Amino acid sequence: MIHNPQHTSYMRHCLQLAEAAKEVGNVPVGSLIVRGEMIIAMASETLPMTLDVTGHAEVLAIGRACAVLQTRALHDCTLYTTAEPCWMCSYVIRETRLHTVVIGAETHAVGGITSQYPLLVATDIPVWGAPPQIITGVLRAECLALRQRPA
Length: 151
Known about the structure:
34% of the residues lie in helices and 19% in strands. A hairpin with a 2-residue loop joins β1 and β2. The chain has a five-stranded mixed β-sheet with strand order 2-1-3-4-5. By secondary structure, the protein is an alpha/beta fold.
């Protein structure tokens, strides 16, 4: 699959964040929030090294973006992440109305798109409105390899 070169560039940045997480013993996931062409926020996974169970890279990056922009309305922003957002992350994405989600690799067991509970793309939850645009498989092989490589 051929992707926008800008998507590839941002995903490479996410991979660096994921690598940093892995180096300190956390799950290798990195995420960015981009508005226009500017990175607004970024985060690496903080689990299992912290006790904060919400320490997923996507949730942390979204929280930081909301703080920077002083709003919970991220309808003009894009989330880049090395792993398909889980159910918790999908809920946060939908609540903040992110416009686009760009994903490196799927996480079938708990993914917000590919699992049996596809919250990220559900259209039957009226309070959320339309789901975000989803772009998958950006640097998929690299994202999967990082998850599978021993620490």
